Amino acid sequence: MENLQKGDNVFVRVDENHTFHDTYGIVKEIKNKKVFVELDQRFSHLCIGCGHYSDTIIDFEKGELEKFNLEDQIEIWATRLYTANGFHHLFELPYKFSPLNDCMYNKCTKKATQTILFNANGSVFNHHVCDEHASYNGGWGDEFPMADDYKAVVKEKIENDKK
């Protein structure tokens, strides 16, 4: 079991008959053997059904949680940035991030350092950019100013093991 820390993204791994089966959230606090997780807002109806009317923080045992990388779960990431109604299409690059690839921003000559999401009129795309262009993460607009002739050097395919 991985060490959980405050701020980690986690899947709740409980029996399929459990109220919070197949949910996810962010670790808010760890006390003794209990981990307090703020569930994603899309699960607030489950919390209300369990008597949690003013918040979505639920406690779990450490063994009931599995840490995940938000960048590997693009649909969850996009929903957190834009809400489920804030976009109608989600497009993911067919290859993993690599620091050997160039920044995808138009006319930038730096190497990519991270992945961002950009919402172009309801269509969310992920882009690999340098630190200078990371401020576009969570942005909206007509289009991301992407290099016209962009070609990735490293194209390691993404595995279809997403939630």
Description of the structure:
The protein has 2 helices and 9 strands. The protein has 163 residues and is mainly β. The chain has 2 domains: 9-68, SH3 type barrels; 70-141, no CATH class. It has a 5-stranded antiparallel sheet with strand order 4-3-2-1-5, with no helix packed on it. Strands 6-8-7-9 form a 4-stranded mixed sheet, with helices on one face.
For this entry, give a set of tags.
163 residues; mainly beta; SH3 type barrels; 2 domains; five-stranded antiparallel beta sheet; 2 helices; 29% strand
Helix and strand content put the structural class at mainly beta
- Estimate percent helicity: under 10%
Tell me the strand order in the biggest sheet.
4-3-2-1-5
Number of separate strands: 9
Number of helices: 2
User: Roughly what is the average pLDDT, rounded to an integer?
Assistant: 88
Low-confidence stretches: none
Number of domains: 2
N-to-C series of helices and strands: EEEHEEHEEEE
Shape type: elongated
Using only C-alpha atoms, the radius of gyration works out to 18 Å
